[in-house]
Amino acid sequence: MSKPTLLTLAAAALLLTQAAQAAPKPCDELKAEIAAKLDEKGVKGYEIAAVENDKVGDAKVIGSCDSGSKKLTYVRK
């Protein structure tokens, strides 16, 4: 194989790997992953909610789920 072809294949493989890692997740799955990380760090008194994009309000957005149709929000209690 020539170098340009090998380089093209390597670039394509890298792009496919990144796309697979950025695959959209269901809200419940992403919410559980974030909550586990916060709990592991000892964070207490918070609420994570999945809301429609236009219903975020003043809450801090910490993620996007359900193929971008919803946002995960974080609020301290």
Describe this structure in words.
- The chain is α+β, with helices and mostly antiparallel strands.
- It is 43% helix and 26% strand.
- The protein has 2 helices and 3 strands.
- It has helices at 3-21, 27-40; strands spanning 46-52, 60-65, 70-76.
- Strands 1-3-2 form a 3-stranded antiparallel β-sheet, with helices on one face.
- The chain is flat.
- The protein starts with a helix and ends with a strand.
- Residues 10-20 have low confidence and may be disordered.
Write a brief caption for the model.
With 77 residues, the chain is an alpha+beta fold. The chain has two helices and three strands. 6% of the residues are buried.
Unreliable stretches: 10-20
- The whole-number mean of residue pLDDT values reads 80
Rounded radius of gyration (Å): 18 Å
Counting DSSP H or I runs of 4 or more residues, the number of helices is 2
Main beta sheet, described?
3 strands, antiparallel
How do the strands line up in the largest sheet? Answer: 1-3-2
User: What kind of oligomer do you see?
Assistant: single chain
| Helix and strand element order | HHEEE
How many strand elements? 3
Structural class: alpha+beta
**Measured distance between first and last alpha carbons:** 60 Å
Any idea what the shape is?
flat
Question: What's the helical proportion of residues?
Answer: 40-55%
Strand content: 25-35%
